[in-house]
Design brief:
With about 325 residues, the protein is α+β, with helices and mostly antiparallel strands. It has 2 domains: about 180 residues, Glutamyl-trna Synthetase, Domain 2 (Glutamyl-tRNA Synthetase, domain 2), CATH 1.10.1160; about 120 residues, Beta Barrel (Ribosomal Protein L25, Chain P). About 20% of the residues lie in helices and about 25% in strands. The protein has a 7-stranded mixed β-sheet with strand order 1-14-15-16-12-13-2. β14 and β15 form a beta hairpin.
């Protein structure tokens, strides 16, 4: 017997005032399980680390992942209410997360998969502070100092020895802008015994401090970096959808919903390199790693041992081009 019918039966038997009932559908998201019974199964069978696992659609999990209350409220308000069952695309929630954090999250520079860069014509024992904007969406957030030195880290994806068409990042003979710093040109590479590039050598133009050339020449790409001498280490956890299917309950006969768990829902990067301003970041604080995504300091962080969760990624145009094999700018 449906719940409504049972409720009405009790009303009739008790002879009390027949209050009106209006039912609304449950909010459901793609790639997400909302059943409390099934979420309990995930916890008890240790498919996740607990109710506060950042992949869980619980308030504790979303808080730990870095979702802001304002973004969740804006999302729920936009979805509205309905009396018919439906499912909302998870991308819509992520849109509101990005929209909210874009306004409030301070920008920092972090390199997740570091590649060493040596600027050969930069003085060996010199270091200087570059002015960096904390949040271009909020002028009142001000600026900070970011140390720059001869040896840097950049993302591995920001260098290609043999660049494909329309790849504008660093490559041999190409000049790019280092965010807030100088224009640099790649002059050579160093490889290990297996032929893997482990070091990139560059030259810099001292006249381009701040990223602009006095002669007006243009470069097509700006990349972020971290000074090797000043970098702090962190464990970064990259979260993806917990399930690989839009509807986790769609399974073959004889299987349950756990068959649709995404084996790549968590990637741990043990030794990311971060700018030193993050050394004093507190648990729960949210930041935008420039050109990478939004991140939150995890509650498991300890002094000298930062643990950081990715809240949501930024859109990486080149990653999509490379994955699909389609040309685009």
């Amino acid at each position: 017997m449906p719940i409504t019918s049972r409720y009405n039966w009790f009303i009739e038997q008790l002879g009390i005032f027949p209050s009106q009932q209006i039912e609304f559908d449950r909010l459901s998201l793609t790639y997400t399980m909302m059943s409390k019974r099934k979420l309990r199964q995930l916890v008890e069978e240790k498919f996740v680390t607990g109710w506060d696992d950042p992949r869980m659609p619980t308030l504790r999990g979303m808080r730990r992942r870095g979702y802001s209350p304002e973004a969740i409220r804006n999302f729920v308000s936009a979805v509205g209410v309905s009396r018919t069952n439906g499912i909302v695309d998870l991308a819509m929630l992520e849109h509101f997360i990005r929209e909210d954090l874009n306004k409030r999250a301070p920008r920092v520079m972090a390199v997740l998969r570091p590649l060493k860069v040596v600027i050969d014509n930069y003085p060996e024992n010199q270091a200087e502070d570059m002015d960096a904007v904390n949040n271009p969406e909020d002028p009142s957030a001000g600026t900070r100092k970011v140390p720059f030195s001869r040896v840097l880290y950049i993302e591995q994806d920001d260098f290609r020895e043999d660049p494909p068409k329309q790849y504008y990042r660093l490559s041999p003979g190409r000049e790019v802008r280092l965010r807030y710093a100088y224009l640099v040109t790649c002059t050579s590479v160093v490889k290990n015994e297996k032929g893997k590039i482990v070091e990139v050598h560059c030259s810099y133009d001292p006249a381009t401090r701040g990223g602009n050339a006095p002669d007006g020449r243009k470069v097509k790409s700006t990349i972020h970096w971290v000074s090797a001498a000043h970098a702090i280490n962190a464990e970064v956890r990259l979260y993806e959808n917990l399930f690989s299917k839009e509807n986790p309950d769609e399974v073959a006969e004889g299987q349950d919903f756990t068959a649709n768990l995404n084996p790549a829902s968590l990637e741990v990067i043990p030794d990311a390199k971060l700018e030193p301003s993050l050394a004093t970041a507190v648990a729960g604080s949210r930041h935008q790693f420039e050109r990478v995504g939004y991140f939150c300091i995890d509650s498991e962080s300890k002094p000298g041992k930062l643990v950081i969760n990715r809240t949501v990624a930024l859109k990486d145009t080149w990653a999509k081009i490379e994955k699909k094999g389609q040309p685009a700018r």
